[in-house]
Amino acid sequence: MSQNERPPNSVRSLIERLAAGLDAEGMPVINPNEPQAASQPARQASAAAEPLALRAARFSSPLAPRRQHRPAVVSLAQLEENGMVALRRHRHVGEEFRIVRHHVLEHFQQAQGQHDPVRRNNIVLVTSPRDGDGKSFAALNLAGLLAEGGDRDIVLVDADFGGASLTAHFGLAESPGLLEFGDSPRQLAGSIPLGTAIDRLVFIPVGGSADAEARTALAAQRHVRSLASAVADSYEDAIVVVDAPACLTRSDATEISAIAGQAILVVQAGQTRRAEIEQSLDLLDSCPQLSLLLNRAAKRRRGLFARRG
Questions:
Q1: pTM (2 decimals)?
Q2: I want to staple 42 with a disulfide (CB 3.0 to 4.6 A). Which of 37, 88, 153, 257 is the partner?
Q3: Per mean pLDDT, which range of 84-88, 155-159, 206-210 is the poorest?
Q4: CATH number for the domain that contains residue 228
Q5: Number of structural domains in the chain
C-alpha cells in the first residue's frame, strides 16, 4: 500500500472508530467480502460454519510421534496467569477469539495447495504498532483456541527478542529456542518445542540468552525471516503462530510479513492512534491477508475484527 492509498473500507472503518474513541458495542464482525453483516446473525453463521473449517486431514508431523512423551513444561496455571482466557467458554473474550479463529482457519484452508517459493501460508503473524497493545495476549489466546479440538498441531513461537516476552513470563529464559533453531532445524525440530497443558499446542521460546541485549544482537545476525521460514518448513502441516515485536519499534514483524500467509495487527481501544495504525498497515502490506483486532474494549462490549484479503 503506497502512502497515498487509503486502507480498504472495512479496515478504514475500524481505524476511524478507534481514532474517534468510539466503543465497539453491538458491532458485527467486519468482512470486506460481504456488503453488510448483521451482528447476531453473523455471529451465529460464523459459529455454524466453524466446524467445516476445522475439518483438516490428519497428517504426519515431527511433533506427532513425540506428543504422548512430551511433558507439559508450560502448565495450565502458567497459561492462565499470562492471559489465556479464551478457553473459558462463558467469557466474552473467548467468543471474540473464536471468530478470529474461524477466519484464520478459513484463510488457511483456502491457501492449501498454493505453491509459492517465498510465502509460508502456515505462518500467522501477530504484532501491534507499539509495545503494550496486547499482541502476546492475542497470540496466546489464538494459539490455544486453534489447538483446542483441532486436527492440526499449533506451534506458538516467541519472536519478541527484546521485549517482556512470553518466554520470560513462562520462566523459560534459559531454554533453547528460536535463535538456536536456525542452526540445525532437522535435528532440533523434535526437541526444542516445549509441551503445554493443551494437547496440540507446543511453544518455542526465544532462546539465545537470558540477556535481552544479547538476544537482540544475535537475532540481527540470524535474520528473523530465515528463522521463521525454518520453523514453518519443519512443521509444514502445523499452523505456526508467531508473536513478533511491535512493528513500529523493530523491523522483525515487517520481515516476517513478507513470508507469512496472514498477519493480525492488534490495536488497543482508546490508545492506539490512527497514524500508528496506518503506518503499521503500510509496513505489513506485503502480507496477502491482513487483519485488525481491537483489544481491551470495555467490558460487556464487543471487540472488532476487520480483515483485508
A1: 0.77
A2: 37
A3: 84-88
A4: 3.40.50.300
A5: 1
Grid coordinates representing 295 are 483489544
User: Does 2 map to a domain?
Assistant: no
The answer to whether 206 and 192 have CB atoms below 8 angstroms apart is no
Whole-number Å distance between alpha carbons of 281 and 8: 11
CA distance linking residue 142 with residue 98, whole number of Å: 8
Would the pLDDT of 49 be above 60?
no
For residues 14 and 294, what is the distance between their CA atoms, to the nearest angstrom? 9
- Domain with 158, as residue range(s), is 9-308
Residue 53 φ/ψ, nearest 5 degrees: -70, -20
Calculate the dihedral angle through the C-alpha atoms of 197, 157, 236, 192, rounding to the nearest 10 degrees.
-70
* Model pLDDT for residues 130-142, shown as the tens digit of each residue: 998 989 999 999 9
Of residues 67 and 223, more confidence is placed in 223
**Distances from the Cα of 236 to the Cαs of 61, 106, 155, 193, in angstroms?**
8, 17, 11, 14
* Gyration radius from the chain CA atoms: 18
The helix or strand, by DSSP H or E, that contains position 99, with its residue range, turns out to be helix 92-111
